[in-house]
Amino acid sequence: MSTEKQFDVVVIGGGPGGYIAAIRAAQLGFKTACIDEWTNAKGAPALGGTCTNVGCIPSKALLQSSEHFEHAGHAFAEHGIDVQGLQLNLPQMLKRKDGVIKSNNDGIVYLFKKNKVSFFHGRGTLAGGTEGAYTINVSGPTTDTLTAKNVIVATGSNARELPGAPFDEKVILSNTGALTIDNVPARLGVIGAGVIGLEMGSVWRRLGAQVTVLEGLPAFLGAVDEQIAKEAHKLFKKQGLDIHLGVKIGAISNRGNDVTVEYTDAAGGAQTATFDRLIVSIGRVPNTTGLGLESVGLQLGERGFIAVDDECRTNVPGIWAVGDVVRGPMLAHKAEEEGVAVAERIAGQHGHVNFNTIPWVIYTSPEIAWVGKTEQQLKAEGVAYKAGTFPFAANGRARALGDISGMVKFLADAATDEILGVHIIGPVASELISEAVVAMEFRASSEDIARICHAHPSLSEATKEAALAVDKRSLNF
Predict the structure, then answer these.
(1) More confident residue, 2 or 185
(2) Residue 133 has what pLDDT?
(3) For residue 309, which phi and psi values (nearest 5 degrees)?
(4) For labelling alongside 247, which of 16, 183, 283, 472 has CA 20 to 30 A away?
(5) For residue 450, pLDDT beyond 90
(6) Is 108 one of the annotated binding-site residues?
(7) Which residues contact 238 (CB under 8 A, 6 or more apart)?
């Protein structure tokens, strides 16, 4: 049975961009609805999109669990903690991961109730209408028809498949299948040395898999500052990741129980490798299939993304789009910021997203995090700069933790000393980078960070020391 319900704002998609946009719109006094079709194993709604269900959250849960396992097997002895008979209980590890997902799902449901956001479980499809009265059909456990003055499309992205090697999530895996492997594979192949490939490869290597990473680009982590990337490459190879660069993938044969990959390496030699599981992480594509965009004349832009202006407006008045389905970095926190900004723009406010201060993180061990320009970008742009680095090996807290790999690196304008980029590889880099984000948002200089008192002993002292190193006056190295 279909009933028509009228709203000021309807958000299609309940991932980070969508649910945050809905909450902010409701806070601003709009009658708001959110539509999302994710369903858990029991058939219940599973709000949070890819990030919560098969992305950011479960991957971090497994990364943490696998790190504990590796520490218990290799690092605890140095701390005077002897572990006898260490065993992996993979079903419990996966159960814990699923519990973390459910807690996040339930948290979003609670937030919707708290903020009076109406939730519709199903697939949202645009079905025509005019400015101020767009129609959205919901097909799911129940059928509904909504009308809205404003529509925010936040439908995210899907894993990109390799031609001729479709995901079966049993042998050839996307991020979804990589999070649910029920037995540690003896031989794990990973195509793509990006964020997902390295994180998932790290998880299963720690748990006992022999991991081979095949990367098409000639450089490792090409988007990362070159000095940091070289350090990461050295550390990951030392840990046991078998990384091949400049690879051209040929035929892939899924034989049901294993998969064979033919490829040419950087030296031009033909290779064949057989894996028990193969994770394909070669990027993501915007999720626009079945949205009914043509019913309102909404245009797609380059590579299938929804075309938007700098403020996330589409070509159709009153219809907006945020997150992975539009241009810009495919990051959950970028989607959240756009969701908030769009809700505020609908309210006549001046929502703002500064793409220059969006942090990036790879949650490997050590973690890699950065914000702003890399050294190679500054060279290419002809910008005169100063650089300062400080190793965690010279940091007292890192020594106490037993994790001294990596460094902090500052890049500052040669004339004004304004911070242009900060790059970290090391323990909890994902947390340390926030200081740099704040500093850059307020256009601070490296001298500003160098003059701030940092707690001792703390990892954040490495940030202060790297800022001091810009002026060649580091105190502890």
Answers:
(1) 185
(2) 97
(3) -90, -170
(4) 183
(5) yes
(6) no
(7) none
Round to whole Å and give the CA distance between 313 and 399. 50
| pLDDT for res 39 | 95
Q: What is the pLDDT of residue 384?
A: 98
Do the annotations mark residue 132 as ligand-binding?
Answer: no
Whether 199 has a binding-site annotation, put simply, is yes
pLDDT at 2 exceeding the cut of 70: no
Comma-separated ranges of CATH 3.50.50.60 domains in the chain: 4-158+285-353, 172-282
Q: How confident is the model at residue 317 (pLDDT cuts 50, 70, 90)?
A: very high
Is 454 marked active-site?
Answer: no
pLDDT attached to residue 75: 95
Q: Is 122 one of the annotated binding-site residues?
A: no
Q: Span 357-470: which CATH code?
A: 3.30.390.30
Q: Is 223 annotated as a binding residue?
A: no
Exposure b/e, 362-395, CB count within 10 A at least 16 = b: bbbbbbbbbbbbbbbbbeeeeeebbbbbbbbebb
Mean pLDDT of 157-172: 97
Given this model, what pLDDT does residue 331 score?
A: 98
Please list the residues that pair with 211 across neighbouring strands: 188
Q: How confident is the model at residue 41 (pLDDT cuts 50, 70, 90)?
A: confident
Domain 4-158+285-353, CATH homologous superfamily name and number: FAD/NAD(P)-binding domain (3.50.50.60)
Specify the domain boundaries for CATH 3.30.390.30 within the chain. 357-470
Is the pLDDT score of 288 beyond 50?
A: yes
Instruction: Please enumerate in sequence order all residues whose Cβ is within 8 A of that of 11, keeping only pairs 6 or more positions apart, or say none.
Output: 18, 19, 21, 22, 25, 32, 33, 34, 35, 151, 152, 154
Mean pLDDT of 402-421: 98
Q: Looking at the predicted structure, is the pLDDT value of residue 432 above 90?
A: yes
Any known ligand binding at 406?
no
Catalytic residue among 68, 74, 352, 456: 456
pLDDT band at 264 (very low <50, low <70, confident <90, very high): very high
CATH 3.90.226.10 at 172-282, yes or no: no
